[in-house]
From TrEMBL:
A Pfam family recorded for this sequence: DUF4062
UniProt name for this protein: DUF4062 domain-containing protein
Positions of the NB-ARC domain: 191-311
GO molecular function, one term: ADP binding
Species of provenance: Amycolatopsis mediterranei (strain S699) (Nocardia mediterranei)
Gene3D superfamilies per the UniProt record, alphabetical: P-loop containing nucleotide triphosphate hydrolases
The DUF4062 domain, residue ranges: 17-88
Length: 391
């Protein structure tokens, strides 16, 4: 999305400028902004950079105020905004033109152009006569609303599948994964109904199998996804960076692009494609994550110890194992355990599926023989077991 404007519109009016409002509309539409303010240093003229960026853009957006702007160095008879409009016209780009109204409120700097005011007035008139539909706006909020509507209505080609080549960073599967069939069925049902699924721990407890269930789901249904991306989400400040890495993997951005640009391109791409899965693991802050969740026909899984996700997606509580599942898990990790020993350990641990066994079978049996579990009480035993390494 190539955004054309003069410099004062980036700063005025305060506290929210016209350019800020336009960028918000573009981001909400799932697009990225190309703007002279974001172009990096290069050994070419500004005119060349301007033309190259316009050539790569999908849509041209002009915000025309009352100031003429900077004349082009090699063509002083035209400003950069005039040149950009002409280039977009010559190349056949879709053009969305917004004209600040005479009753627009703002400081004098928004309207005063003592040197080139007559040129700008003539340019504004040419826009009316250019054959393109011009929308008049008088405030940043109105610009955001009108631009978002125009972008939503604009017919653009949509891709329904991901690029060739599979994109996959899901952690390795736990091959001794046990049980959770009802949870996996519920997860699949929620995702196929078109809403995010939140795999929740009951009572905020960790270690109940949220992450391993999400991993198992991704591997079990791998054939249904061309893209599956794991996003560690404990630190909300790092989520955008990890999504930007996905945008780079999809060749939507480079490491030189600001994260906001990478995220806008990613959201726009996922919005028009299917067969993708994003997993936000260990997300605790629903307020921070909600603006980053993509729209579209793909699937989103969130694992969390926080129960407050009711307005985000379908809640799927992860409860303790059934006793048979607990016994199967313990014996799959330590085949030397008898069913009786495994049953007693499962009982003492409250049937929690807590990671790989780290104690030797000899130590487990010694503790069981001396009655340590029963002598100390289940609650104390569980805490001590976890402190020593747990299951």
């Amino acid at each position: 999305m190539f955004l054309s404007h003069t410099s004062e519109l980036r700063e005025l009016p305060e506290p929210r400028s016209f350019v800020a409002a336009a960028e918000a509309a573009v981001a909400r539409a799932g697009d990225a902004v190309a703007d002279m303010a974001y172009f990096t240093a290069r050994d070419v003229t500004p005119e060349q950079v301007d033309r190259e960026q316009l050539a790569e853009a999908d849509v041209y957006v002009l915000i025309a105020g009352f100031c003429y702007g900077t004349p082009v160095r090699d063509r002083p008879e035209v400003s950069y905004t005039e040149q950009e409009f002409q280039t977009a016209t010559d190349t056949g780009l879709p053009r969305l033109v917004f004209l600040l109204a005479e009753d627009t409120a703002g400081p004098p700097a928004l309207f005063r152009d003592l040197r080139y005011g007559a040129r700008q007035e003539a340019f504004r008139q040419r826009l009316h006569d250019s054959g393109v539909t011009v929308t008049t706006v008088s405030s940043p909020d109105q610009l955001e609303t009108e631009l978002l509507q125009a972008l939503t209505d604009l017919a653009r080609p949509k891709q329904l599948s991901m690029p060739a080549g599979r994109i996959w960073n899901i952690p390795a599967r736990t091959f001794t994964f046990t049980g959770r069939e009802d949870l996996l069925i519920g997860l699949r049902t929620a995702l196929c109904s078109g809403q995010p699924a939140v795999v929740q721990a009951m009572n905020g407890m960790g270690g109940v199998g949220k992450t391993t269930t999400a991993i198992e789901y991704a591997h079990r249904y791998a054939k249904d996804y061309d893209l599956a991306w794991w996003v560690p989400s404990e630190d909300p400040a790092l989520i955008a960076e990890r999504l930007a890495a996905l945008a780079q993997a999809l060749d939507l951005a480079t490491d030189q692009d600001p994260p906001t640009i990478a995220l806008a391109r990613l959201r726009g791409t996922l919005q028009t494609r299917s067969r993708w899965l994003l997993v936000f693991d260990n997300a605790e802050d629903a307020t921070a994550l909600r603006p980053l969740l993509p729209d579209g026909n793909g699937h989103v899984i969130i694992t969390s110890r926080n129960p407050n996700w009711t307005d985000v997606g379908a809640a799927l509580p992860v409860r303790e194992f059934a006793r048979a599942e607990s016994v199967d898990l313990l014996r799959s990790r330590r085949p030397q355990l008898t069913e009786t020993d495994a049953d007693r350990i499962a009982d003492a641990l409250g049937d929690l599926p807590l990671g790989p066994v780290s104690k030797s079978v000899r130590a487990i049996r010694r503790w069981l023989r001396c009655g340590w579990w029963l002598r100390s009480g289940q609650r104390v035993c569980r805490n001590e077991w976890l402190r020593r390494g747990g299951v």
